Amino acid sequence: MNPKSCLNCGHEISDEFCSHCGQKADTARITPRSLIKTDILGSIWHIEERFFRSLKHVLFRPGRMAMDYISGKRIKYYNLFSLLLILFGFNVLTMHFYLDLNPNEIQKESSKIFEFFSRYSKTILFVIIPILGTNAYFIFKRMKLNIAEHFIIGTVSLLGILIIFLFNDMVSLIGLWKPAAKIFGILEKASFILFILFPAVTYWNAFKKSYSKPGLLWRVSLLYVLMGIESLVIIAILYRIL
pTM for the whole thing? Predict the structure, then answer.
């Protein structure tokens, strides 16, 4: 059998992909059929598959996903930081839609508080990563992860929070329809509880095989205490600036 050469770099190919540049071995001339099936639909499906798989894993196995990512199993996941920006953008859009449809939501007495959180929403959300990462670095020393790896776990936790926020915003939008207001009001409260608990779920899922249940419980509780204190300090500083 005659060896094939890679059409991209010219190296000999003995497998499905070129070992030198990574291009697929079956790269052929572009036809109308291949353009639609492979280049357009294939690319869209590949992106969507990774995107939705990443969202599913963030919600249902966040800690394991973070540990997989840290250990080098990354190709099956969407880039975490790109996903972070996409979800943040969706959150901003849905919040604007909600306020446009329900302008009475902002009362005069709460306008200053709303202005504060509107101005500093990005800061408040994105300090979650260094707060979680730095605290977890000292609390979960036994794991021997470096600070950057703990930031990855914090990023996955924030992704889950943003997904819950997005769900909450969508529930709020549907809840503007009066007949559904009561049911969706309950869902809104449930999503708030999930938002509070999600970092605990992430760390429990990540480290449950490395610590006893009591050991993990007090460490997660300490993480929450430190996060609460530090968050209040940051909000107080930003509120003074406003």
Answer: 0.75
